[in-house]
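User: I want to check something. If I give you two sequences, will you return the structure for each one separately, not as a complex?

Assistant: Yes, each is folded on its own. Here is the first sequence with its structure:
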Amino acid sequence: MSAAALALDVGGSHVTAGLVDLDTRQVRRTARRSVHHSAPADTLLDAWTQAALEACAGDGQDTVQIGVAVPGPFDARSGRSQMRHKFPGLYDVALRPLLAARLRGQVGPQGTVPEIVFGNDADLFALGEWWSAGADPRARLIGLTLGTGLGSGFVAGGRVVTSGADVPPGGELWNMPAGDPQVGPGILEDHACGRTLERLGEEALGERLPAVVLAQRAEDGDRLARAAFRQFGHGLGTLLRPWAERFGADTVVLGGSVSWAFGLFGPEVARALPGCQVRQSRAFELAPLLGAAALAHAARSGQDG
């Protein structure tokens, strides 16, 4: 059996665990537990542990590393959440030793606990897409998660980039000023999420519809609904272009719930980003798990080197 990494993707209402084969870069098995972010710390950690053990059932001894994808703000080095709006029970709690204690003797060779590494979920979405697509060391990739909000990750040379002149602070685009007269005022997230589609649909159709309903109308041939998606794609591409040029991106990957309608707006994004390959996510909800595994594998390789 080849070496594996245990990956966790922590969300506001659930946690997903996956056992990732480090040779094939595929997820062998997943497990999911529902648990709300407002639950006490012990309840949250118990759910994470249950999902992890189910995902590792029968293969736990093959696990050589553990990676955890978490929303931010989060101090990955110390393993402490800095969120106040979510996970109040975990605020400034040292999670690494608490999770390790629950997994000790059940995950890892000879009863040890592999090192646990943490990473931002949007960053690891981007890293997972890069890693599972062949891990080209020359690639410069931007990953966006389009859902209730906007998440972003920048990957260059197989590493997540969160600082420097060619990326926004922390690698986070959501709160960057839009500042484009063609698109409108506000911040990027105002023009790049499900709420944006609802607003554009209301302007076009005269009624506010959930993005998924608007997409169905567009797929059924509604001219105004299709125009709303084209406007969304043009706006997204226009606002992303300065950052794609600054970063020197050759690939832009769109994930999140909105990306299921990629065919309706993706071509407009691509037209606004000449020189970039713009594609839909290939791994979707598995991408953060793959990214967490890649992060963990890189950390271990660095130790071994």
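And separately, the second sequence with its own structure:
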Amino acid sequence: MADSLITKAEQPRITFLRRITVGVLLIFVVSLGLPLYFSTTTIYRAELPIEEISELASGLQDKLHFKIPVYLDLGLETDQINGLQNSFNSKLYSEYPELYNFWSLGFAKYQGDIDSTVDYIVRGSQQQQQQGESGQKYVVSPYSKETTLYAQYNQDELVSILLEGIFHEEITSFVKLIRNTLHEDGTHAVALPYSSNYNVVFSLFSESGQPIDWEIGKVSKLFKPIFQKLNHIANFTISSQIQYYSSLTIQPTFNQEKSVYEIKQEDLSTFINFGDWNLITHEITPTINFIVYFGESSYRGKQLKIAQSKTNSFLVPQWGGVYVFNKDKPILKDHTTKIVEAELLPVMETFVSQLLQLIGMPSAPKSLAVRIDSLSRLTTFKNLRQSLENLMSLVKLTEALNEISIPELTKESVETTLTSIKESITQVNDFGEFELSVKHSSTSVEYSNRAFFEKEMVQQAYFPQEHKLAVFLPLIGPISSILFLGVIKTVKDIKGDRKRKE
């Protein structure tokens, strides 16, 4: 009887404590648990300038205006120069309408302080061309941007010289870029994808194990002047190596008539032994490989030749070049064979030519200064377009995956990319500074890649919403079930109390 009275006396107190506990727990979950859950699971998405990206990407060609100044030392008056300008524009845009308001030449009268190493100059010459038998009406200086006209010419002929001669390859390359057919002719497929840094590796591969040495340090310096002229486009670093016992995967055939070993053209695709030759570099930057192959046949007094090749070399598209080297003098076994500077000079000349092809240098005209200028303008346009393609891919990715994170670093990289794109366009349009425009366009490519491949965002792309549930369910499940049952019990108790009162 006494125990029954004590239990009845304790029931209101226990009920009250249970209600207080449930209430406190409910308040704790709502005020602290839920905000903590959402703060730890909510994905941060920085706001990207999508409209600005779309505007630039859709109208890049309309915003760029490549106008190349050409100074005429031809004794023409202002009205004649204006007539030449109209004639040139008319022929250019009728043949290549894609270039309208995008690429053009701007003619002006020559002034005495203009330097042909910096600006384009067209001069007239009263002398007859010394190489008259070649039939050329003009000559482009290989050392500057100066063009000399010979014999008589008229306005149409001058337009043809500029349009179909000096700037022809640049014009057609721009048209192919705009039409997205740059790689269809095969010549441009040789070039490596653009990078602001390249590692150039010179390798001497010896088929035998006989000791060998080469004066690569002396001849590799020949590349430095070219690298300096190209430093606004990319940076180049040089390294070298020697490897022995580098056997071929093909078997050269002996030509009895010429008394040489020959490698057929159809066998060149398997010339490089990628399986056994150590061609792996640990450089992050793209590598341009130049291989000097020294065959064992040289020790037998026989040369190794590539059939139908004048330079005894070949080019591997988007990879590098190979030169098969033969010693002219007899070689003694068990003595160190030395390849001296004079023997390596023609090899390096071949490699220089291959290098220019591998970086996408136009093949004409002969003037290196003109070709570098053309490469600068082409690279600027390709880089700007690549940067905007990267940004548009980023926008599509973030719109397709609502749960992907957009960190602040991505936003900063996007903003830097857009700033560099605008600055590059300004340098082209307002100042005609094509070297500076390349540098800014290179920066835009670098930061657009950073924005797209930001590690925080890439990791989040593979972390779907279901994973969050799997992580938090062991914690949320027990707490939620206890709280849920406690709330139900409390609600039932309150309803029971009301009924008893009634």
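Because they were folded independently, the notes below concern the second chain alone. The CA atoms of residues 73 and 112 lie 10 Å apart. Residues 67-179 form one domain.
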